[in-house]
Amino acid sequence: MEKIKIPKATAKRLPLYYRYLIILNEEGKEKVSSTELSEAVQVDSASIRRDFSYFGALGKRGYGYDVKNLLTFFKKILNQDTLTNVALIGVGNLGRALLNYNFKRSNNIRISCAFDINKKITGRILSGVPVYDMDDLKQQLSDQQISIAILTVPSTAAQRTTDEMVDAGVKGIMNFTPIRLSAPASVRVQNVDLATELQTLIYFLDSDKED
Ligand code: ATP
Predict the structure, then answer these.
(1) Which of UniProt's keywords are assigned here (predicted)?
(2) Does the beta carbon of 118 lie inside 6 Å of ligand 1?
(3) Distance of CA 29 to CAs 22, 32, 66, Å?
(4) Predicted structure pTM score
(5) Total structural domains in the chain?
(6) Are residues 93 and 174 in the same domain?
(7) Among the atoms of ligand 1, which is closest to the Cα of residue 153?
(8) Strand, coil or helix: 167
């Protein structure tokens, strides 16, 4: 499929649209208006219309969008018709929680291998996922053609592990450590810092109280 160049903000909203369309389709709904979509995904309808315009004429005025068409379209654009294997590095508490999480239910993603340095867990299968020693990283990622990794090692090991991942050909890192990783420009890093997010929420609630 031809790659469509879309703005980053639009790209970020695609999974939101996709998830809601799955629900609509399961409910047997055939049409959806941008206003309905807007309420459900909490994105203003002007942005929705603009987002959808990047994908060509998918909607008709006063008629709404065809749910099945949109779904097929998003499925392709989000690569949902192919299963994406990702690796998990660091099988501690958070790593295990992610191993247990069923990404496959709503997205066609699965963690197909995990890595750790702790000999007590390497060589075992946890939640159906084999845990390899870090020494096997390069070989396994290359054998399984994996280019995306979730990073859940302690902060102290984050940069070192990143260098190892980059060396093993990883092109996308989901970083759960609070460390700002340095990686070549060709590697995309998505930061998910749970503690900071919570702290921000607490900060907002506290400042709401003062208003
Ligand atoms: P717990 O200590 O209970 O396992 P945790 O999530 O608090 O949970 P961390 O110290 O954050 O543990 O470590 C997470 C995991 O990362 C551990 O399983 C640890 O063995 C692993 N780990 C530590 N250093 C590295 C490294 N350099 N490469 C790969 N994995 C590592």
Answers:
(1) Cytoplasm, DNA-binding, NAD, Repressor, Transcription, Transcription regulation
(2) yes
(3) 10, 8, 9
(4) 0.74
(5) 2
(6) yes
(7) 16
(8) helix
Handedness of CA 39, 42, 46, 52 (dihedral sign): negative
Pairing outcome for strands 84-89 and 64-66: unpaired
Q: How confident is the model at residue 1 (pLDDT cuts 50, 70, 90)?
A: very low
Distance 106 CA to ligand 1 centre (A): 28
CB-CB contact of 112 with 86 (8 Å): yes
Say what the pLDDT of residue 65 is.
85
147: CATH: 3.40.50.720
Contact 89, 152 (CB under 8 A): yes
- For residue 67, the tally of other CB atoms under 10 A from its CB is 20
Which long-range contacts does 153-159 make (Cβ < 8 Å, 24+ apart)? 153/89, 153/90, 153/92, 153/177, 154/90, 154/92, 155/179, 157/90
User: What does the alpha-carbon distance between residue 193 and residue 195 come to, in Å, rounded to a whole number?
Assistant: 6
Domain range for 111: 84-196
- C-alpha 208 – ligand 1 centre gap (Å): 37
Q: Could you tell me how far CA 30 lies from the centroid of its own chain?
A: 27
pLDDT tens across 52-77, in order?
Answer: 887 765 666 667 888 988 888 888 77
Q: Is 116 in the pocket of ligand 1 (CB under 6 A)?
A: yes
